[in-house]
Amino acid sequence: MSQKFIKSTRKIIGAGVNYKEILRQTNAAKPANPVIFFKPISTLISSNEGVIKIPKVFGSINYEAELGVIIGKSCKNISTDQAMSYVAGYCLALDMTGMDFIVDARSKGLPWCLGKGFDTSTPVSRFISPEELGDPTDVRVWCKVNEQMKQDDTTRNLIFTIAELIAFTSKYMSLEKNDLILTGTPAGAGPVKNGDILECGLGDIVQMTFQVEDE
Ligand code: MG
Q: What CATH architecture applies to the domain 12-87+96-138+148-214?
């Protein structure tokens, strides 16, 4: 099963705070627009690699299991109605995050990139075709740490839909074939440390397992 797409991915676009339960837990209002950030492509690893490394500068890192969307052809300034026709397929992804860094950066209005950009911070599964995934607006996303379920929700509870994320981002930049969009993570994200085992999945369609280690 192929992970070839990551060899030609030219950008990774992440969506922050994009599940309704997170808003509910923090009593926050619905944002007017998606929160979009970049991750460098050097963060990508395939599920075969099996190890996520915590950079020495972080005490721990957070797991964020997400549905990844893989763009199929270039687009710019597309509407929400057109957006899904530019999707080639999907993957399971982890958006590993140096959360202490992000919390500090957020409070000072500084960029997130050093908390999102470390090596091994974007593990991805094999490519999943739209036919195999089924309805992208109701995909179960789950994550376990040391066999304990920590995240379990469905893309039905996204704040901004996949189509809205694509259309919004395409107003600002071209999306290109094999670009990867991380659609946000369900409530329950939290820290992992050296020795933890991280397992995540999209329903029963695909799953992946990683050992977490200090760099
Ligand atoms: Mg995320």
A: Alpha-Beta Complex (3.90)
